[in-house]
Write a structure and sequence with these properties.
Blueprint lengths: L2 H30 L5 E7 L2 E3 L2 E4 L3 E7 L8 E2 L15 E6 L3 E6 L7 E6 L1
Parallel strand pairs: 1-4, 3-8
Antiparallel strand pairs: 1-2, 4-6, 5-7, 7-8
The chain binds copper (II) ion.
């Protein structure tokens, strides 16, 4: 194979690869903007902030532990799945598809409580 043909083959392969990467990036963007909304709750200074949030049905709630101590997001009922212990900067997500009031607490520090109201 001549050097020119090799160079052309490489350029073609690179173009195909870049197109594939771009296509997958577009797919990821489309799937994250399909109407579902994400709400963040910080875990900071041994408290959930905000302590109570109201979200639409289908929303995703993301907790982020900003403390140096581990915390959990533990459902007070069976309304949603509880987290494991979250270390500093760990995130935990839950999707709330049904309207209702969901209370939760930290199993390590049970005085830490929070409420998700799903409308
Ligand atoms: Cu805690």
């Amino acid at each position: 194979m001549s050097t020119v043909i090799k160079a052309l083959a490489f350029a073609f392969a690179l173009t195909v690869l870049l197109c594939a990467v771009e296509a997958s990036a577009m797919t990821a963007k489309a799937s994250s903007s399909n109407g579902a909304r994400t709400y963040q709750v910080a875990i900071r200074n041994f408290a959930f902030e905000p302590g109570t949030i109201t979200v639409p049905a289908g929303a995703t709630v993301v907790w982020v532990n900003q403390d140096e101590e581990p915390h959990t997001v533990t459902s007070a009922g069976s309304g949603f799945a509880s987290s494991k212990a979250l270390d500093t900067d760990d995130r935990y997500e839950a999707i709330f598809s049904r309207p209702g009031t969901y209370t939760y607490y930290c199993s390590i520090h049970p005085h830490m409580v929070g409420t998700i109201i799903v409308q």
